[in-house]
Amino acid sequence: MIRSCFCTIAFQKNKWGADRRVETPLADIWPLLAEAGYDAIEIWWPHLEMLGRDERAELAASLQHAGLEVAMVSPYFDFTTSDASAQASIAQGMTVISAAREVGAAGIRCFTGKTGSAEATAEQWDRAVDGLQRLADAAGDLTFALETHARNLMDTPEATERLIKRIDRSNVGLIFQPSTFFADPQGALARLAPWTRHVHATNRRGNDRALLGEGELDYPALIAALRKAGFNGCISVEWMGDDPADVARQEAHYLRSILA
Questions:
Q1: 15, pLDDT greater than 90
Q2: How confident is the model over 121-162, as pLDDT tens digits?
Q3: Which residues does 102 contact at the CB level (< 8 Å), separation at least 6?
Q4: How far is CA 97 from the centre of its chain?
Q5: Which superfamily is assigned to 3-259 in CATH?
Q6: pLDDT tens digit sequence for 30-66
Q7: Rounded Cα distance, 89 and 127, in Å
Q8: pTM score, two decimals?
Q9: Share above pLDDT 70 across residues of the chain, in percent, rounded to a whole number
Q10: Three-class DSSP labels, the chain
């Protein structure tokens, strides 16, 4: 069954700055998402990182009571910049694995760095493959999900398939983000569906952000294609604009209407 999900990063305005601090704690976010009717949440890593072990245990119990699964924990890894950044990512990944287990997460979102597939050297490819293999081996039954995204090794369908085949681990899959392949999302999905475990749902009209039902990407058609391919993961709304609480409510209603 395909389920609805929302990314908690939506409640953070300063998402990537060096002085980034959590602006809205997770305890203020998940009850709103439960009330809106989501099946799952995707937790931005800083929201989880700031919690101690006892707080994570309490969170896991509260989410279970509310009927919210943790579909994904979403940190940032960088295997391509340097050996040092790769080693730091592996160390961070081990911490994320432990925290993800504590809250009962199904998977961990992965980036490879800030280098596109066409620009990456053989050494950068090798470093990403090695690092992700090591984390996947440590993760056990947790899924490591590579997010299709610009300025990563998953920026084209061909490169994404190349990377996942080289990693060659049964617990490594994909977060399919249709907007990465805006010109032909259906073609990309046809190629990548066998590895797709999770979907990041965004939309736009021209250069402006749009709600899922109001942008140029056809989500009913994409969900139909996912169903045909046997997908049974989460459609996770990733909103980067204003009014995240209001958008979360609107998108929950929209997803219920097209998933019914």
A1: no
A2: 999 999 999 999 999 999 999 999 999 999 999 999 999 999
A3: 53, 56, 57, 60
A4: 15
A5: Divalent-metal-dependent TIM barrel enzymes (3.20.20.150)
A6: 999 999 999 999 999 999 999 999 999 999 999 999 9
A7: 11
A8: 0.97
A9: 99
A10: CCEEEEEHHHHCCCCCCCCCCCCCCHHHCHHHHHHHCCCEEEEEHHHHHCCCHHHHHHHHHHHHHHCCEEEEEECCCCCCCCHHHHHHHHHHHHHHHHHHHHCCCCEEEECCCCCCCCCCCHHHHHHHHHHHHHHHHHHCCCEEEEECCCCCCCCCHHHHHHHHHHHCCCCEEEEECHHHHCCCHHHHHHHHHHHEEEEEECEEECCEEECCCCCCCCHHHHHHHHHHCCCCCEEEECCCCCCHHHHHHHHHHHHHHHHC
pLDDT at 52: 96
230: amino acid identity, one letter: G
Contact between 15 and 24 under an 8 Å Cβ cutoff? The reply is no
